[in-house]
Amino acid sequence: MIIVMGTSATEEQIQAMVDKVEGAGLEAVLLRGEKRNVIAAIGDKREVHTDGWLAAPGVDRVIPILSPYKLASREASPGATPVRLDGGVVGQNKVQVIAGPCAVEGLDQTLDIAEAVKAAGAVGLRGGAYKPRTSPHSFQGLEEEGLKILHEVGRHVGLAIVTEVLAVDQVDLVARYADVLQVGARNMQNFVLLKALGKLDKPVLLKRGISATVDELLLAAEYVLKGGNSQVILCCRGIRTFEDHTRFTLSLGAVAYLKQVTHLPVIVDPSHAAGQRSLVPPLAKAAVAAGADGLLVEVHPEPDKALVDGHQTLTCEQFSQLMGELRTVAEAVGRTM
Ligand code: PEP
Ligand code: MN
Predict the structure, then answer these.
(1) Would you say the CB of residue 101 lies under 6 angstroms from ligand 1?
(2) Would the pTM of this model clear 0.90, i.e. be above it?
(3) Any ligand 1 atom below 6 A from CB of 207
(4) What is the pLDDT of residues 293-306, one digit of tens each?
(5) pLDDT in tens, 25-34
């Protein structure tokens, strides 16, 4: 159930409703909106006695939620939820781009990339300090040193830092340096990690697992939302199919569908989906045309020398050119960049 409080509902009326919901044996999650507050009444119970809820002071509407993802659904919150980054908002009309290397390799490399992507119009700098590698023999990231580099460069250039957290015991450390904590595809259903991120007051960028359904992605987001953190950005990065000409298959249907069913911002990572540089620009443009709120793009000054994912990484010049082309696509679908 969702209890939509009226625009003039007082704090006492909201608290009284929270008490009523809890009194009925349900959990009350208060979702504070810019215009009005909503209480999600959550529980496994099939039959809930909601008598008197609608007539309670300050209540505007009481709506049953049918979808399994109660907090992420548009039923819970019909308007889009904007996620604020320093320098921009994800989930409003402007398409926002986060770009940077797959892995942080050093200060000079990170600074060069940051300046290039900032000049091209990016709002965030991505870069892995902790890398989830398929092989334990591959470069695992610069770890805390990488976080320090990201933080310093982000502040210097004026970009929000987006970086991956691999495990619960890294959450505090990564949150100290990052503006947005990324949960990678391989960790989408690490429920303990999601619960820990739910307690944070920082945005979470949640990537779709390589074999996860859209409902599973939304239920993963639900873990973060249920903890009280409403700042979740969903990211489609391709799923595994029988197709082997791209590294993964980018489902643009999922992007369009997600925009219909959830109020959370949806962005697309064309780099990991494509797996090769030449396919990144067309996938990026298609994603914006399909309604994505933003993009996560891998960029490096010398991709062929990059320590990780060079083959799918754009040069700074290619990124800048892509940003220009994206502007035309964004305008064609009624968005800005
Ligand atoms: C990444 O963004 O560098 C990354 C490892 O992505 P994914 O989790 O989508 O594979
Ligand atoms: Mn990568």
Answers:
(1) no
(2) yes
(3) yes
(4) 999 999 999 999 99
(5) 899 988 887 7
